Amino acid sequence: MPGPAKILIVEDDAHIRRLLRATMQRAGHEVAEAADARAALSLLDIEKPDVVLLDLGLPDRDGLELIGPVRQRSTATIIVVSARDDSAEKVAALDLGADDYLTKPFDTDELLARIRAALRHQHASTAGEEPSIIDVGDLHIDLARRRIERDGGEVHLTPKEYAVLAELARRPDRVLSHAHLLKTVWGPAHEARVEYLRIAVRGLRQKLETDPSMPRLIVNELAVGYRLSLRGPSNTP
Ligand code: CA
Hints:
- The model has no long low-confidence stretch (mean pLDDT 90).
- By secondary structure, the protein is an alpha/beta fold.
- The protein contains eight helices and twelve strands.
């Protein structure tokens, strides 16, 4: 498992910055801080962060404009933390290369869980050990054998259902945009066919969720995409 990480907090609000710093330090992470885009870019090369927590409302530049340059110069995971609850903006952030998105006010436990997920993924990619088995609640996903079991019994998925689940399972606890899932599973020509994706997700939920009308495994990110939640299909919220 990955150890503590270096987190670069990019946030102009001193109060939120302090809160984020305290939260990260309590979790054992090292912290660097920037109050604007200019400072963020200069700290990027000096601090070499593993994770960048990026506020979009910065005084000198729109945080969205930072995603490209950060992505070019660093392999850090970018988690956008923004006050704006605007789905078009979330999609834009993901398309520009952000890895995840949280809306303020956010739950610090949720933020730490997202950071852990990001670090697990980074660690696995660097070590060339993408996890091929994912266990969530009573669900067992074996990507190497293309086999899904629930309560020990095999679940039969259509090829598209399987492909969607596999893509989500490769990056658990992280939001994948509709366009990303459509491109990966159906191909670039079908990037806008959100209805294809809805049908596959409905099928998956029927087969995998304890209560398909209250999904806990394949979670909606409204108008943005889907996330496979490692908290599982049958746990309490
Ligand atoms: Ca701000």
